[in-house]
Predict the 3D structure of the following.
Amino acid sequence: MTDPPVGPPNEHDADAWQILSPLIVHGRYLPWTSGSMRPAGLVQVCNEVVHGDRTHILECGSGVSTVLLARLLRERERGVLTSLEHDLHWATLIQDQLHREDLDQIARVVHAPLQGSPEWYRLGEMPDEIDLLIVDGPPADKPGRGAARAPALARLGGNLVDGAVVFLDDIDRPGEQQIIKSWEASTDWRFELNLPAGVAIGQRQPGPLNP
């Protein structure tokens, strides 16, 4: 059985670990790290895939979530996933895992180094339509990196279809909380914070911007 994720015990994550168990293959190791999305957050993403019938998914930051989401899409027999990853070694590791499980026709990891100011992924060929965006990268856990994920809506907003949903991970951190405030102040996106799961979930809400 795959070892539980890194981090302090959490009753929501413990419950989520059981919910995710159908997507976890016994005897097949998945590379959980301290930067991996928490199980409770991943359950929320999987619920959105199923209940929202999401079929064009873009993920910023690859990892165990990439593999589990690909397994879910295969189970549903619909949908594709693109994951952006700045770290070449990690991108290769996750893509190899997808290949070993014959998931590489469903999901792909795109090596996208960080560039520019503010730094963001070097975007090449991108999906024309995205109905679910998961922002779990670039890394934002080091001093001075709290706003690293702020460019996501500006860079990818044009690819988000009507009714799309955006997840921002690590919402328990001040940097991500400030990003949500900034997005809501400058766009028509509104977010609901799910602190037990560690994510914020947003959709466009047409109407006047906040004063």
Summary: Confidence is low (pLDDT under 50) at residues 1-9. The chain has six helices and nine strands.
